[in-house]
Structures are given as structure tokens and as C-alpha cells.
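INFO worker-7 received task bundle
INFO bundle size: 2
INFO processing item 0
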Amino acid sequence: MKNNTIKILLIEDNELDARLIKEFLRDAARENKENIKGTVFDMIWKDNLSSWLEYISEGDLDAVLLDLNLPDSTGFDTFFSVYERIGARPIVVLTGVGDIELATRAVREGAQDYLVKGEADGRLLSRSVIYSIERKKTEEELRAVQSNLERKVQERTLELKERYDEIEQLLFTISHDLILPLVTVKGFLGFLKKDVSSGNQQRINIDLGLVGDAVDRMEVLLIRALELSSIGKQKNPREKAPFGDLVKDAMIAAADCIKSSRAQIKLAADFPVVSVDRPKMVEVLASLIFNCIKYTANASPPKIEIGYNTNESEIVFFVKDDEIIMDPLLQKNIFKIFYRIDDEKSSDIGLALSRRIIEVHGGRMWMESGKDKGCTICFTIP
């Protein structure tokens, strides 16, 4: 409805009925009792279904008045042919006294109303059209709300499943990775007992050192697991900051690693301002820098690029190296807890932590890798 003009398509094969309906609408607009003040009805008349199909692809309209019995279509098939193409616009069925049951079925299937020919006047006709438009509009709004709710429920369900799988994986990994240091502690406690009995101080010191190393590995494992489980529960207030400042803080945190590896880091000329939990976001960036250096150890020196791209709906930040090429089948696993790329790489939880921090911010994190493209970790910050 534009400028209080309601555009109506009438599909009716009887010319006399079509003229009468047009007069009814004109009189109703003139009386202006049942309508919005200033409403004008602009009616287009088609006398068969085929001509309507040609019109709908070209024109715009607010409502359809439909006679179910036409020269080229009859009964409920007429309603269904129009209903499946009409989209969000309402249909008011026009019927004879003998076809009320058919009209009632059409209402059950999606028509907004029906009127009996010979019993409807201008007041009833205009009111039915206006109310049908409003009801249809309300239905579409409710349908959109329901669809959005269902989408959110699906997303939340998927998120909960991912968290459940993550917890299950965490428990399995901790159980698995704790076995080795526990076996080490148990074994060397036996050696320690013998060495204490023999008074071999050198062997005692070695035993204690190996037990201490095993305990340290267990501590690191448990601390990192605790960090992962606490993300989202312990939050710092968000603050606005230039993303470039966060990158500089991360480079300071990773300064020793950058220096020892002689890594070369290329930064974008400018960065946008973001609203983030600053300490956590610096932790993410530092972790990504550490990972780039760790997995490009053979490069001399490692080359890393930190920047961003802007599309129509969001800003995508990235941390990229030009050495690692990862199999697409492995890219889905890289964010799993303690995932090992190969037997030579030790367990790591950094990428899993980083993704969880980004998700708590409402963003996404993913990996892109391909031939001659290196490996790029991308993420968004709403």
C-alpha cells in the first residue's frame, strides 16, 4: 500500500460482477467510514487465470479478489494456482451461495477471507480487503519471528553440541595426556625409593628432577584446560581501541619469540577501531603469532602478515604466514583441543582458546589454506 492507495487485482470472468465490485469499492472510498482516511482503491480486472499469471510477473499489488470458477480453471485448483504464486499478499475469495464449503476450505488453506456474491456491499467488501491486508501482514511478521526463533534455536543447539563435544574431547585428552606423566612419576618414585635406600645422592637428584618435570607437564596441561573452561565466565569490560594497538601489544608479548626466530611481521597501513575485551584479544593475537612462528620453524626467517579485509557486512581480520600449506581435511581439526598436526608437534590448546575467545565476542574464526597461499587464520569481531 503506497500513499494510502490499495492496489487490488480482481480475477473474475463475469463482467457485470466486476463492474459492480469496482463501484462498491469506489463508493466505500467516497464514504470513508470503514477505511483509513484518504484511502483509494485502485482495481485491476482480469477475466481469466492466464492473464493474471502474466500480470503478476510485471505488476505490484496489495490484495487479490478471486473468483474460483474461471474459464481456464475451476474450484480449489484456481485458489491453489494463485496462492502458490502470490507470496505475502492476501487473497479474498469471491463465491456463490452454492460454493461456500469450497470457499471455507480455501480460508483453511491460506485465504484471508471469503465473500458471497450478492450479499456483499461496498462497506463489507472494503472492510474485508483492508482487514485481510492487515491480517496477512501480521501473519508474515509472526512467521518471520518464528523463522528467526527457529534459526536461533538451531544455532544454539549446534553451539551446545559443539561445547559438549569440546568438553568430551577435553576430558578424553586430559585423561590420555595425564597418563604419561603419572606413569613417569610412579616409575621414578620406585627408583627414588631404591636410591634413597642406597644413599646414592646423584641418582636421587636425577629422580627428583624427572618427577618434577612430569609434575610440571601435568600442571601446564591442567592450567590450560582450566583457561579453556573459564572463557566466557571471567570477562573484562569491553573497551574501544584501535586494532593496531592490540597488535602492537601482542607483538610485545611475543617479543622474545619474534626476536629468536627473526620473524618478519608485515602490518596493514591502518586498522579500524574495535570494541573488545582487550587483554583477551591481545592473548588471541599473541597466540596466533606464536603459532605462525612455531609451525614455520623451517623458514628463515618466518614471514607473517597481519591485516584485514572489508566486505559488505563485516570486517575480517587475518594473521597469515606464507609457508604452511594445510590439507583441507585437517583444517576442521586445527581448532580442536590439543590437536597434533603431526607426531613432531606437541599438543597445543592455543587455537582452541583463541576461537573460544572470538566466539565469546560474538565473532567467528576459521582457517584458509591452499597451494602457494600459505595458511591464514581469519576472524571477525562484531
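INFO item 0 finished
INFO processing item 1
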Amino acid sequence: MSHAISKTNLINDCYLLFGSKIFNYIDFLKNLSPSELKVAYRKKAFETHPDRAQTLGEDEDDMDERFKGVITAYERLNSFIQGDKKCVLEDELLKKKNNKKTNHTQRNQKSVSDHFYKSYIPKRKLLFGQFLYYSGLVSWRTLFDAISWQRRQRPLIGQIALDWGILSSDEIQRILTERSYKENFGEYALRKGYITYFEFSAIIGKQKMLQRPIGEYFLQQGILCRSEIEKMIERLKNHNRKVLVNDIGSFCYKSSKFSPFRLF
């Protein structure tokens, strides 16, 4: 008896092990070899192994969760390319129907801490998750869970600093020992002079660049399908574009109003 693997799961597994530089996941899966998969798995398993949590200044439970996710992704992809399981391409219409039922159920189960926004979208620049919330598509609790998920996917600050040769293993261990429990690893390293402001900014920039898009969470949880996410991305671009145009217009008006060269 064969087990079915959804296309969404396989794409998410590829994203987890190989990163976001793959442009066509279907072709990539068709040509993926066991040796390539094993190399990617070993690298990712080393990066997320919970035994390194103390060295990298990360929570061991979070590392353990990420490590288990890497194992699951490897096993699923390995089974797929070995031909033991089949990939089921889910019907887009069926997904939309199920998503509508899910959203309807969410709205009926809303509470004080898990509510859906019901008003005008703020006339300011928004991030994708915020735009979904202000559009009434996801609840406050779902947005919070999505942000927490995205942060857990980020590469570790200590790992980036170690890979770049900015910090040594001994320095990382010293920072972990010296800092207070509530203080951020990177901010403490900056404050104590272990890293410069430029290095800190570069590490944070690299961390954000490598984090998974928040839309992947809504796709993975079945809250939105890919076509819905793409449609909302376009709407967000239009919204932010209008906000920018209005801000520029407002700035120009105020500048001309108080200009010393104004004749009328």
C-alpha cells in the first residue's frame, strides 16, 4: 500500500533543506539525486542539532524541534525520490473549498485573544502578514503563530558569526556565559565590543534574507492556497505603492507651503 505525499509538503521540505534559491521546485524534485539529498541533509542536521544549542546561544527545545523537522523532510524526500511513495497533486478547487471551511470555522471560534479585524486597512506601509490580518483573512492568533514560526526558521546569529569568522567558538561560549538570560545574543555581543555595529547589521541582514517568507506558513497550514497568496501579494504591492505616492504628495505640499521661495 502506497502512502501519498502532498506537493506542498515536498516543496516545503525542499525549502527547508536546500533554501530559497530554487526557482522551479517540480523540475528540481524530478532531477534530485539521493547523494545530493544526503549532502544537504547532513549540512542542515549539523546546523540544527540540539547539542549545539548552548554553543550557539539558542533554546535547546527550539533547536530540537528544528532538527526533527530536518529529519522528517529528509525521510519524506528520500522516500519520494526512491519511488516508494507517490506525489499527489492536490486539486486547487478542492483546496479552496477546504480553506473556506477552515476560515469560516476560525471566524466562528474567535475569542478575545483570537479575533478577526473588521475595519479599514490602515493607510501606511504594511508587511505581508499585517496585510492579511487587516484584510480580515487571518486572525490575530494566527498572525502571532506565523510570526513565531518565521522567527524559528531564521539561521542562528551565532552560527552566521561563526561561519563568517567574526566570532570564535570560545567567544560564543563566553557571550553565553556572561549575558543575562533576557538579553539578546547579538545585542550583548555588540554592547560588549565582540562585534562592530557594521558586523551586527550585516549579520541581522543576512539572517532576515535567509528566513522563510511568512506566506509559507499559511500555505503549510492550509489557511491559504498558493494562488490566494500570490493574489494578496499583488494587492499588498498596490497598497504600499499608493501609500508611498500619498506620502510623497503630502511631503511636496508641505514643502511648497513653507518654502521661502513661494510667491502666492
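INFO item 1 finished
INFO post-check item 1: The chain has 14 helices and two strands.
INFO post-check item 1: The mean pLDDT is 78.
INFO worker-7 idle
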